[in-house]
């Protein structure tokens, strides 16, 4: 069962980000449920940030990167690394936000069903054990709530922001006059808004994915605990199977957005883990020291996030498989429950999908974890063996 500390992460998230503009999905502290917003009038600030300012800043980053690649300008390697990270974060943030907006109602229904299920099945939380997941979720909320206010001053001071370099390398502004600075100042401030949205999105996804997956695992564990009842009578067996099918319907309701979020998060984790490892290990003498201090902590946090989220998704398929096998064994010797046995054999074990636009790439299983870590290790080693003496 989700511990009070884990539920507090959502409460702390609502408190820490309460001054933000309205987003499609948020946590209501008073009602203790997820609330969706589809009204475009209420979402005007969110639309401006995600679909106007974010693509604009991304285009600035992309322009400087491409002009450097084709030899038209000579931007420092430090700036290219920062712009690459910003481009990836902005693109994936906009993609996830758009996907959540399109499927927000199904995601809200599925999440709130699991929340209500946990309220009905009250259990005692084990005492005396360190709640690692609760500590992780609360730490991620605290870290991301202060991160934009640390990164932005460093970026402005060392002139690592995309608008400044776009004006310098593409527009060829001298940046020596007060007029140029006054012209660029509003645009440079606007860069802060997508960073705020990014720092809101990722702790919210951490809390949403971890808590809903844990509630789903709790529901499967409850069915596993009472699995012996399935052999005693037809009504009890029907009740067990019906509860399992309710969970299957819940997963199916949010199937499209769930697969998209998993695919984007795994892609984001792979790319950012490689980039931050590369900067932390290879560019320690290139990146300015105050800014460099932001990279090693994130390089440590990203694998922790991966190692927290990925096993949760894998456990769903693992426990559902074991439950199906357990039911099958209980019903082998029951001659009067052949219909229930056929229903159990026809059940497709629950799993967390990974895919985009209706195409499922794979489902999260134990073999995927080994493959994913292998990709991170291989590409990190390849990046560290590359030559970085040009353009520094």
UniProtKB/TrEMBL annotation:
Q: Which domain of life is it from?
A: Eukaryota
Spans traversing the lipid bilayer = 43-66, 73-92, 135-158, 253-279, 291-314
Alphabetically sorted, this entry's keywords are: Membrane, Transmembrane, Transmembrane helix
Q: What is this protein called?
A: Uncharacterized protein
Q: Tell me what organism the protein belongs to.
A: Folsomia candida
């Amino acid at each position: 069962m989700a511990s009070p500390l884990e539920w507090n992460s959502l409460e702390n998230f609502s408190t820490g980000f309460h001054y933000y503009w309205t987003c499609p999905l948020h946590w209501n502290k008073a009602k203790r449920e997820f609330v969706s917003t589809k009204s475009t009038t209420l979402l005007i600030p969110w639309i401006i940030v995600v679909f106007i300012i974010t693509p604009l800043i991304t285009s600035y980053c992309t322009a400087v990167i491409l002009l450097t690649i084709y030899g038209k300008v000579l931007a420092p390697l430090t700036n290219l690394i920062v712009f690459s990270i910003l481009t990836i974060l902005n693109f994936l943030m906009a993609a996830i936000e758009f996907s959540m907006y399109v499927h927000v109602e199904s995601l809200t229904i599925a999440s709130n069903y699991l929340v209500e299920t946990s309220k009905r099945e009250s259990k005692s939380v084990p005492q005396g054990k360190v709640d690692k997941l609760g500590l992780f979720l609360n730490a991620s909320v605290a870290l991301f709530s202060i991160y934009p206010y640390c990164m932005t001053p460093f970026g402005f001071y060392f002139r690592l922001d995309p608008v400044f370099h776009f004006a310098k390398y593409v527009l060829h502004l001298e940046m020596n006059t007060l007029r140029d600075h006054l012209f660029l100042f509003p645009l440079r401030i606007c860069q802060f808004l997508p960073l705020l949205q990014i720092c809101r999105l990722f702790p919210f996804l951490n809390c949403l994915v971890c808590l809903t997956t844990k509630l789903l695992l709790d529901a499967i564990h409850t069915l596993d605990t009472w699995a012996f009842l399935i052999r005693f009578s037809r009504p009890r067996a029907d009740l067990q199977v019906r509860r399992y099918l309710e969970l299957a319907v819940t997963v199916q309701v949010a199937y499209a957005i769930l697969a998209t979020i998993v695919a984007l998060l795994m892609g984001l984790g792979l790319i950012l883990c490689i980039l931050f490892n590369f900067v932390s290990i290879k560019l320690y003498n290139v990146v300015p020291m105050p800014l460099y201090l932001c990279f090693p902590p994130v390089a440590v946090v990203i694998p922790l996030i991966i190692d927290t989220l990925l096993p949760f998704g894998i456990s769903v398929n693992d426990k559902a498989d074991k439950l199906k096998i357990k039911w099958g064994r209980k019903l082998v010797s029951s001659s009067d429950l052949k219909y229930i046995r056929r229903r159990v054999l026809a059940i497709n074990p629950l799993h967390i999908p990974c895919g985009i636009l209706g195409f499922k790439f794979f489902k999260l299983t134990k073999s995927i974890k080994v493959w994913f870590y292998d990709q991170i290790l291989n590409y990190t080693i390849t990046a560290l063996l590359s030559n970085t003496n040009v353009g520094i």
